[in-house]
Design goal:
Number of strands: 7
Low-confidence stretches: none
Number of domains: 1
Largest sheet: 7 strands, antiparallel
Number of helices: 4
CATH architecture: Roll
Radius of gyration: 17 Å
CATH superfamily: Electron Transport, Fmn-binding Protein, Chain A
Strand content: 25-35%
Oligomer: single chain
Distance between the termini: 60 Å
């Protein structure tokens, strides 16, 4: 019984770390040289900005849903005509979910380390290609 209690406490502590880490990332939205801002529209027509990591591969631009909170990704699937801002320049693009072969290639090229995966709670990664409109 003591072992079960200890495992439960460890599981709850781990879940707490993941929730705090994901919440801080979502709140602060750290931006830098390797990030872009994607503007999606929700079901009510309201625009939402989200800082996401920029992934360049094979001459194309991609973004990935790397965290559990991913409303921006669902919004881009529902309305793929999105805008991105790179270095202060706003562009209209079409968000296209990638197929399995492209997904596997991107997973290899842009792998996350184990520390990041632990801190984020091992969310499934979903990639989207941003094609010019």
């Amino acid at each position: 019984m003591k072992v079960v209690r200890i495992l439960l406490i460890l599981a709850l502590a781990y879940a707490g770390v993941v929730v705090v880490f994901e919440s801080l990332i979502g709140y602060f939205q750290p931006a830098g040289q390797g990030t872009i801002v994607i503007t999606t529209v929700d079901a009510n027509g309201e625009p939402h900005d989200r800082v996401v990591s920029r992934l360049d591969s094979d001459g194309k631009l991609y973004v990935a849903a790397n965290h559990w909170p991913r409303a921006w990704y669902r919004q881009a699937l529902a309305n793929p005509d999105v805008q991105i801002t790179i270095d202060g320049e706003r562009r209209d693009v079409r968000a296209v979910p990638v197929d399995s072969a492209e997904h596997e290639r991107l997973m290899r090229e842009h792998a996350h380390g184990i520390v990041f995966r632990i801190l984020t709670g091992f969310p499934p990664r979903k990639f989207m290609r941003l094609d010019p409109r």
